Amino acid sequence: MKKIEHIGIAVKDLEQSNQLFATLFGEAHYKVEEVEREGVKTSFFQCGPNKIELLQATNPESPIAKFIAKSGEGMHHIAFAVDDIEAEIERLTQEGFTLIHKSPKPGADDKLIAFLHPKSTNGVLIELCQDIKG
Questions:
Q1: What is the pLDDT of residues 21-54, one digit of tens each?
Q2: Which of 11, 59, 62, 63 is nearest to 32 (CA)?
Q3: Contact 123, 105 (CB under 8 A)
Q4: Burial of 11 (C-beta count, 10 Å sphere; 0-12/13-18/19+)
Q5: Which of 26, 42, 98, 116 has the fewest CB within 10 Å, making it most exposed?
Q6: With DSSP H G I counted as helix, E B as strand and the rest as coil, what are the percentages for the chain, rounded to 5?
Q7: pTM exceeding the 0.70 threshold for the entire prediction
């Protein structure tokens, strides 16, 4: 793993949260994107060398909707950048981690993604991210 790629925050209202975080960071979001198959609309902020991803559910069965119903708004996951997501999935599987995704899938912000189950990472949802080469 190279670095923290972003921190994901689950929100109920993306527009309202965009205003709040724009005020907090002193800068507007740089991208809004909907990932239909995940039932989520995302917004990205650059904060110094770091990125923050806000996630709003677009349907009541999405993972974000279920997270908010159970835990409320707040930190959802930490994403780490990797060079080779398939090799990292294999390495982590061999090390005994439980993966939610056994193979990468397209995600927001031009990334391939896979999640590790929080039961194997001290309760923290971990996302692996690799830039889609194009």
A1: 999 999 999 999 999 989 999 999 999 899 999 9
A2: 11
A3: no
A4: buried
A5: 26
A6: 30, 40, 30
A7: yes
